[in-house]
UniProtKB/TrEMBL annotation:
Protein's name according to its UniProt entry: DNA polymerase kappa
Domain UmuC: 85-260
MF (Gene Ontology): damaged DNA binding; DNA-directed DNA polymerase activity; zinc ion binding
GO biological process, one term: DNA replication
Subcellular location: Nucleus
Record-listed E.C. numbers: 2.7.7.7
Cofactor dependency: Mg(2+)
Catalytic reactions of this protein: DNA(n) + a 2'-deoxyribonucleoside 5'-triphosphate = DNA(n+1) + diphosphate
SUPFAM superfamilies: DNA/RNA polymerases, Lesion bypass DNA polymerase (Y-family), little finger domain
Annotated keywords: DNA damage, DNA repair, DNA replication, DNA-binding, DNA-directed DNA polymerase, Magnesium, Metal-binding, Mutator protein, Nucleotidyltransferase, Nucleus, Transferase, Zinc, Zinc-finger
Top-level taxon of the source organism: Eukaryota
InterPro entries, A to Z: DNA/RNA_pol_sf (IPR043502), DNA_pol_Y-fam_lit_finger_sf (IPR036775), DNA_pol_Y-fam_little_finger (IPR017961), DNA_polymerase-Y (IPR050116), DNApol_IV (IPR022880), Rev_trsase/Diguanyl_cyclase (IPR043128), UmuC (IPR001126)
Stated family: Belongs to the DNA polymerase type-Y family.
Length: 443
DNA sequence: ATACATACC
DNA sequence: CACTGGTATGTAT
């Protein structure tokens, strides 16, 4: 429940005061109670892990270490310095666009979002501890002069599109991860530019946005780099093994994309804080984690990541969800359910897609989240069929609750991709957490 | 296949 | 007045 200071712009602020304000605003709320419940769950997981660790003997761990070393040798084989990968990240993107369009916002603390939730904040606001994913009303407590500008996605989409146009000149296979970040493989671009100084690569865009670059031999490292030297900095990891190992040596695992708050505490509980700790504890980690996770940890410890920048295949799911003031009367719950089906179908039709697995997501006023899914025999984009499926799932939930009412604050629908029958399996060069990837046959 | 958790922006 | 919304993926059953 404390301030997340993993990100940039939070260097010299009064964390203690900020955390106190956040706590005062949150404590006693249903939200806070749920967060505490979740924290307890994580603690339980750590305790279970601890118990498991105590059941291992030293010889087992040594054996696992040897096995891990063999895996590491295979990873080392795949180490590749032939590509130059760039990760670009538009700093405080939404806020930057708003400041561009209204310069009077430039020198005052400002954030984009609403009183319920902020998407991002400018650097003035960050000085007060105001940051992305913070509710606006808490931000206002931290910084009473904060100006909150409503989100204007269409505008950000347009700017994002303009920037992508430019990036495409550097890499036609450029891979956007969101409106404000992308990976590029500029190997080809560099080869075509003679006398190009690798240490002085710069991108020029006409938009005036600030942006960060990470330049490295792979995507994992490039992403970490782009977070260095904020704001508007760039950071390059030299293309040799020693430089990579030096970089990774003291790098906190939390900085690595894919290792979040929970994984970080689980690892921390066994003394793994930096990437080199992942190597140090490889014997133990092999025994504790799945093959997928362990392989990923080993790669991180070696500073090895994907070198293939390419857009993913088709989308795998599409969803719509909405938060609202409590609803508990069945008639209203069903009406909301129908409304969401309509909204989802509208989105499906925009992309001419159908769904096979319908998932109903609900969040109670205590913030408990439940999902119920049902797979149809055939994919559909028909509102009535979607609704009748979702309605049945909702009815079951209402009955399970009764005679108490089902008291909700959120409802959502999603549709899972129709599984295509003729998928071939191909080995994936990398993947954050996956070893295998499924090829989808074209529609 | 289903449910739930984690992670990312 | 008030703690999002969208997508992917891992883990467990």
């Amino acid at each position: 429940m404390a301030l997340n200071d993993n990100k940039a712009g939070m260097g010299n602020l009064d964390k203690e005061r900020i955390n106190k304000v956040i706590y005062e605003m949150s404590k006693g709320s249903k939200y806070y109670e749920n967060e505490q419940r979740k924290e307890e769950q994580v603690k339980a997981k750590i305790a279970a892990q601890h118990k498991q660790i105590q059941s291992f003997d030293a010889r087992e761990i040594e054996k696992s270490e040897l096995q891990a070393d063999a895996m590491l040798a295979a990873i080392e084989e795949m180490r590749d310095f032939s590509r130059t990968i760039v990760h670009i990240d538009m700093d405080a993107f939404y806020a930057a666009v708003e400041m561009r369009d209204n310069p009077s916002l430039k020198n005052i603390p400002m954030a984009v979002g609403g009183s319920a939730m902020l998407s991002t904040s400018n650097y003035e606001a960050r000085r007060f501890g105001v940051r992305a994913a913070m509710p606006g009303f808490i931000a206002k407590k931290l910084c009473p002069d904060l100006v909150i500008v409503p989100t204007n996605f269409d505008k950000y989409r347009q700017v994002s599109k303009d920037v992508k146009e430019i990036l495409l000149q550097y890499d036609p296979n450029m891979c956007p991860m969101s409106l404000d970040e992308a990976y590029l493989d500029i190997t080809q671009h560099l080869a075509e530019r003679k006398n190009f100084d690798a240490e002085q690569k710069t991108f020029r865009t006409a938009d005036g946005e600030q942006r960060m670059f990470g330049i490295a031999p792979n995507m994992m490292l490039a992403k970490v780099c782009s977070d260095f030297n904020k704001p508007n900095g760039q950071y390059l990891i030299p293309f040799n093994r020693q430089a990579v190992m030096d970089f990774v040596k003291d790098l906190p695992v939390r900085k690595v994309c894919g290792i979040g708050r929970v994984s970080c505490s689980m690892l921390g509980a066994m003394g793994v804080v930096t990437c080199s700790d992942l190597f140090r504890k490889r014997g133990l980690l092999l025994k504790l984690y799945s093959a997928i996770s362990f392989n990923y940890f080993l790669r991180v410890s070696a500073g090895v990541g994907s070198t293939s920048v390419q857009r993913g295949d088709d989308r795998k799911s599409m969803s719509t969800e909405r938060t609202f003031a409590e609803i508990n009367r069945p008639a209203e719950l069903f009406a909301k359910c129908y409304e969401l089906c309509e909204a989802l179908v509208e989105d499906l039709k925009k992309e001419n897609l159908k769904g096979k697995t319908i998932t109903l997501k609900i969040k109670t006023i205590k913030y408990i989240v439940r999902t119920k899914a049902h797979s149809l025999l055939n994919a559909t984009q028909d509102v009535q069929l979607l609704y009748s499926t979702a309605r049945d799932l909702l009815r079951t939930e209402i009955r399970l609750c009764s005679p108490e009412p089902l008291r909700l604050r959120l409802m959502g629908k999603s549709r899972g991709e129709q599984k295509l029958p003729f998928g071939a399996v191909k080995p994936k060069t990398d993947g954050r957490h996956t070893l295998l990837n499924y090829f989808k046959s074209p529609k």
